Amino acid sequence: MIDKTVFKDKKAVYYTLGCKLNFSETSTIERTLQEAGIRTARRGEKADICIINSCAVTQEAEKKCRQAIHKLVRQHPDAFVVVTGCYAQLSAPKLAQEAGVDVVLGIDRKGEILDFLGDLTKNEQGEWYTQPAKDVRNFVPSCSRGDRTRYFLKVQDGCDYFCTYCTIPFARGRSRNPKVESLVEQARGVASEGGKEIVITGVNIGDFGKSTGEDFTGLVKALDAVEGISRYRISSIEPNLITDEIIGYMAQSKRFMPHLHIPLQAGSDEVLKLMHRRYDTAFFAEKIATVRNILPDAFIGVDVIVGTRGESEELFEQAYNFIKGLDVSQLHVFSYSERPGTRALSIEGAVSPAEKHRRSRMLIELSEEKRIAFYERYIGKEAVVLFEKPRPSMPMGGFTANYIRVECEPVKEYVNTLVRVRLGGFNSDRSALTVDEIIGVEQ
Ligand code: SF4
Question: What atom of ligand 1 comes closest to residue 277's alpha carbon?
């Protein structure tokens, strides 16, 4: 039994690395600690507890995690330090050795942090509690409120795909999910708190249903029926899991936004094979064409990894031309990072850091061309924007249904409100469109 009296007047700080899923989970951890009486420390305050939610997707992410631990231990020398997340799952004994770390928790224990705080007395030696990710069966739910406008609802965890470059299946375990009804319950909770938008997140969300005998289309339809939520966005979905049925359903839904994020990873069939991805470029191009045909205004974001082993200059050129020809809205470009335990390490043909840098620069420039061209299509057009709370002395911002960033002078009444506007030209750094005319609040 946890003695919550030890938490009275205690303060915690949180540090998160990595994906939307990690941020969603940290926000849920923070809420759990707040409900136990542990408030979040204000800037400059000394904390009694430090929570680090780590990432292991690249070597760089792991290094940043160790740097974060060192910094937090320096800033809060008496605090009880907990490290969790993917890096903790993969390297618990090592992280438990880091100076100042008290407990390292595996992915299955993320929801039980309170049980490991004890009376906050620091441990002589860091302790760690993990089990092999492949044996993890429990699903740790999380639904975070980002800025009270957009919530991140975790619907699935883990992955069974084992793409050769990826460490996530080793860090997050097998694909698993809760029942649709429990997610509908959480969406109702968001609506009751006044939340307008839910981003559906996970690791391989198209694979939803594996552990409950349900499917992703069924989840989409059930969430779509929840009163009070104006918008849903699908955070990322594998190309082979976006069925025509889902695309067709999105087209007739008022709540599922015309916005898709689809990992391509490589633009040549040879490299896709080396990655053990489950499609080829012809399939991917056809999928984009289908989306464009059924959802003509859709914002389509695409993930690409540059410099994986075996990606020769010639294959990269092929990839560049393939991607250039796709009618998509933006690219998310990642540089390949060697991950321990992944099968990619046995592939010949490592790419030098300088060459990776050259390739990612080329794709980032191409991405900007595509984003600007996509935004330009909507200048002068009407759109409905969900405005967010502006930061002090900053313009008010928000997104259209098809994920165009819009900025205007702050208007308090429009925060967390759907407002119909006529879109103007670009703002000064071309990161957003401006508002030419406010037409009115959308009912
Ligand atoms: S689908 Fe592939 S890249 Fe994505 S999490 Fe699973 S193994 Fe990693």
Answer: 2
Residue range 351-379, pLDDT digits in tens: 999 999 999 999 999 999 999 999 999 99
What domains sit in the chain, N to C, each tagged with a CATH number? 4-131 (3.40.50.2300), 143-374 (3.80.30.20), 382-441 (2.40.50)
Query: Is the CB of 267 inside a 6 Å radius of any atom of ligand 1?
Result: no
Q: What is the pTM of this model?
A: 0.93
The alpha carbon of 424 and the centre of ligand 1 are apart by a number of angstroms equal to 39
Residue 136 CA to ligand 1 centre (angstroms) = 17
Tell me, in angstroms, the distance from the centre of ligand 1 to residue 159's CA: 6
**Which strands sit side by side in the sheet containing 49-54, from one edge to the other?**
39-40, 11-16, 49-54, 80-85, 101-105, 127-129
pLDDT 10s digits, 84-133: 999 999 999 999 999 999 999 999 999 999 999 999 999 999 999 999 99
